[in-house]
From TrEMBL:
The keyword Secreted belongs to this UniProt entry's keyword annotation: yes
GO cellular component: apoplast
Disulfide bonds: 54-69
Protein name (record): Germin-like protein
Example of a GO MF term: manganese ion binding
Keywords, in A-Z order: Apoplast, Disulfide bond, Manganese, Metal-binding, Secreted
Native organism: Artemisia annua (Sweet wormwood)
Predominant location category: secreted
Chain positions recorded as oxalate binding sites: 128, 133, 138
Matching SUPFAM superfamilies: RmlC-like cupins (SSF51182)
Length: 239
């Protein structure tokens, strides 16, 4: 992936030659199949905007897939502006990293545009722990420092793909795959990520498994991780 947008190519299905040559209904059927595939792929991505902009109205009581539009006559430059990525995030936490998002919640002008970004700061040894984005691919550019990055493919292969990034390097994390970044340098590291959704979502694995509300049964987790409930209780106490 070389951009924050997804481009899809659908090859034309092949049908038996005798059907398309001698059966007009088969030609109609093949055209309908192609159209159905096009519409299916189109609906699999965030819809394209049908107007110049749709600034998110965070106070609207209308429940839609996304956010309702703010009255265009009330839209101001501030709706398209966010200065939250200027400063280093607070990395004084157990994992030694901080993600500062510029999602639609922070930048209402992103609504319906299918794009967002985030700044990530890491102290030496800092980790952006294993997580995934349920609604977005991530394209990370390292601005300062040295990062170990990686992601894991889906079952049953669970292949671990990893490398080391240096200043100026770019790495893509495919949509919905578990991934991480770790600062392996001796100085602070800083990265900018572009994401292919206005609201990509973040599911941090450890928090989801051991910090769910209410707790997942210790017996279930002990069996899943092939350990005992004492270990699970200790892990749950940290989240």
């Amino acid at each position: 992936m070389v951009s924050l947008f997804s481009f899809h190519y659908i090859s034309r299905p092949t049908f038996p030659l005798f059907l398309t040559q001698f059966n007009p209904m088969a030609r109609v059927f093949s055209s309908l199949v192609i159209l159905a595939l096009v519409f299916y792929v189109a609906m699999a991505s965030e819809p394209s905007p049908l107007q110049d902009f749709c600034v998110a109205d965070m106070n609207s009581q209308v429940l839609v897939n996304g956010f309702a539009c703010k009255d265009p006559s009330l839209v101001q430059a501030d709706d398209f502006y966010f200065d939250g990525l200027r400063m280093m995030g607070n990395t004084s936490n157990p994992v030694g990293s901080k993600v500062t998002p510029a999602f639609v919640q922070e930048l209402p002008g992103l609504n319906t545009l299918g794009i967002s970004m985030a700044r990530v700061d890491y102290v030496p040894g800092g980790l952006n722990p294993p997580h995934y984005h349920p609604r977005a691919t991530e394209l990370l550019t390292l601005l300062e420092g040295t990062l170990e990055v990686g992601f894991v493919t889906s079952n049953p292969e669970n292949r671990f793909i990893t490398t080391v990034l240096h200043k100026g390097d770019v790495f893509v994390f495919p949509k919905r795959l578990v991934h991480f970044q770790r600062n392996i340098g001796k100085t602070n590291a800083r990265a900018i990520s572009g994401l292919s959704s206005q609201n990509p979502g973040i599911v941090t694995i450890a928090n989801a498994v051991f910090g769910s509300k209410p707790d997942i049964s210790m017996d279930i987790l002990a069996k899943a991780f092939q350990t005992n409930t004492d270990v699970i209780a200790n892990l749950q106490s940290k989240f």
